[in-house]
Design brief:
Layout: E1 4-9, E2 16-21, E3 27-30, H1 33-38, E4 42-45, E5 50-54, E6 59-60, E7 68-69, E8 72-73, E9 81-86, E10 91-97, H2 105-109, E11 113-116, H3 129-132
Parallel strand pairs: 3-11
Antiparallel strand pairs: 1-2, 2-5, 4-10, 6-8, 7-9, 9-10
């Protein structure tokens, strides 16, 4: 495992963060209603690996179920990260939108993609190959 510190943030720059992660572990794409509609590609880390540098007051929190939260920038609307506390996935986490990282395109493209069937709460089985094309 090769953990590196990356910076990232929203489109307009109001929301900025640092995160320690290993891109070689890859990120996930999920077919739940919010991830599919936003084409979310994220990687979850423990909260101590994430540092919000700016923008806490520049976000609006969205939570459909109270378990997961997706703050988005009031100015540009980008969801650069999310967070939650779900025991089944290891407790507290921060989910970083990989497309919001400041990283070389080739390095990001090399990160593997894992697919999750969040729509049916069947996290251990991938969605169909046809559905993956929309995620």
């Amino acid at each position: 495992m090769t953990t590196q510190t990356y910076t990232g943030g929203c489109h307009c720059g109001n929301v900025r963060y640092e995160v320690d992660l290993d891109l070689a572990e890859g990120g996930g794409r999920c077919n739940c209603s919010i991830c599919r509609k936003t084409r979310n590609w994220s990687m979850s880390v423990k909260p101590d690996a994430f540092r919000l540098l700016s923008g806490a007051d520049d976000t609006i929190d969205y939570s459909r179920n109270g378990l997961t939260h997706w703050p988005f920038c009031k100015t540009c609307g980008v969801r650069a990260y999310g967070y939650g506390d779900i025991e089944e996935v290891g407790g507290k986490y921060v989910s970083v939108n990989l497309a919001c990282l400041e990283v070389d395109d080739e390095k990001l493209a090399a990160a593997p993609i894992k697919y999750f069937n969040g729509r049916d709460n069947d996290w251990w089985h991938e969605p169909s190959d046809a559905e993956k094309k929309f995620l």
